[in-house]
């Protein structure tokens, strides 16, 4: 997907920023080096305003167009945080921090938006205002919500919000998008099963929390299979099972079960949650055990608004000369959903080529996707806020 424009000529410079961010991954809200780099570059570009520490570690920058008569204000968001993964890419700019890695490509998203910022601050061929939001803590931690609660939308008057995420398996630089629900709500839960610990040789005088926990794991499979409307997407994954002790001759007093629930609609989510609680409690009771059931609301479903999806699609087509692919909805979750819940906007997928999957130790953002990504933001600004003459 060769992009031929001025931003394409900036690709080596943008890739160098990306690789520098990649070598120095930071987690959640703890992003001192990353934010210093981003703010420093934005200052070099000559943007009109920079505010740091928005939502603890977010950065907001403002670029005004050649004119601002339209009164229109577009928000562009990129996430900056990495993951607690031991990198195995073998890249010469691989992570220099053992156990931390940019395995979701947020290094790429940040660099792509920086590239657009440099171009837009230089050219300003639009009538309106662009507000850039560099967000912390996308990977759990609620960075989007933190920025919103710190006034991101109201203090800067953002009217529409746009963002992108790379995706392995889609041709590099190709776009994909979907109007309406696109990514799922992602909740999580923790169930503690309490029995009565004892000697492994004396099961009859203990209450076996391991057996009750195993029965709960099995019983949970019926929620999606038997309770949820077959036409409503839902996932219940029991992903963790931890016994209190790991001795051959001890029946542990308790076990802890963890996992995630993915849904698209609130009534389905509530049904799943209530059924899980009832099943955990009654299954445990059948074994003489008790449970503490804790359910935590995670990110909302990511729902693209119709008109902004159209603008996002048109900009993508202008950049690549090709209509974006129609994206099937996915049960993955993304906290850009929090921004889409308070402003109309759209989230677009940018192909990363045939790379390892997101969150895999061999995953790497594909620098060949940069020209398309940066050009998409820049084109969106110019097309949505045209200078009329
Ligand atoms: Zn991720
Ligand atoms: Zn991500």
How would you characterize this protein structure?
A hairpin with a 3-residue loop joins strand 1 and strand 2. Strands 1-2-4-3-5-16-6-15 form an 8-stranded mixed β-sheet, with helices on both faces. Strands 10-12-8-13 form a 4-stranded antiparallel β-sheet, covered by helices on one side. It contains 11 helices and 16 strands. Helix 3 packs parallel to helix 4 and helix 7 packs antiparallel against helix 8. The longest helix has 21 residues. It has 389 residues and is α/β, with parallel strands linked by helices. The chain folds into 2 domains: 261 residues, Zn peptidases (Aminopeptidase, 3-Layer(aba) Sandwich); 115 residues, Alpha-Beta Plaits. One zinc ion (ZN) binds next to loops.
**Total separate domains:** 2
What compounds sit in this structure?
Answer: zinc ion
The computed structural class is alpha/beta
The tally of helices reads: 11
- What is the CATH class of the largest domain? Alpha Beta
Relevant CATH superfamily of the largest domain:
Zn peptidases
**Whole-number mean pLDDT:** 97
List segments where confidence is low: pLDDT < 50 over at least 5 consecutive residues.
Answer: none
Q: Give the CA-based shape.
A: elongated
Amount of beta strand: 25-35%
Task: Give the termini distance in whole angstroms.
Answer: 31 Å
* Radius of gyration from the alpha-carbon trace, in angstroms: 24 Å
Q: H/E order of the elements?
A: HHHEEEHEHHEEEEEHEEEHEEHEHEH
Helix content: 25-40%
